Amino acid sequence: MEKPRFLPSTPQEVPVIAIVGSGGGFRAMVGFSGVMKALYESGVLDCATYIAGLSGSTWSVIFSSGYTMLSFTNPPSLPPSHSSPPL
User: Is position 84 within any domain?
Assistant: First the structure.
């Protein structure tokens, strides 16, 4: 069976896809959330290599990656070997 022509045959042929959201506070967060949802539903988000945001769209990136407000109020603790010495 012949391999479809549109699939990369080597890792070097795989495109690097970046998704970037702009700043703008709450409006950017809401708008970029819609973009992220559409990219997820279309399957494009699974192909992304990098996702970045500025200002409001950063909140969409954070929450779409699985963080919740609880993550920020109760951060994971590091083992003692990774802690900074007391000041």
Answer: no
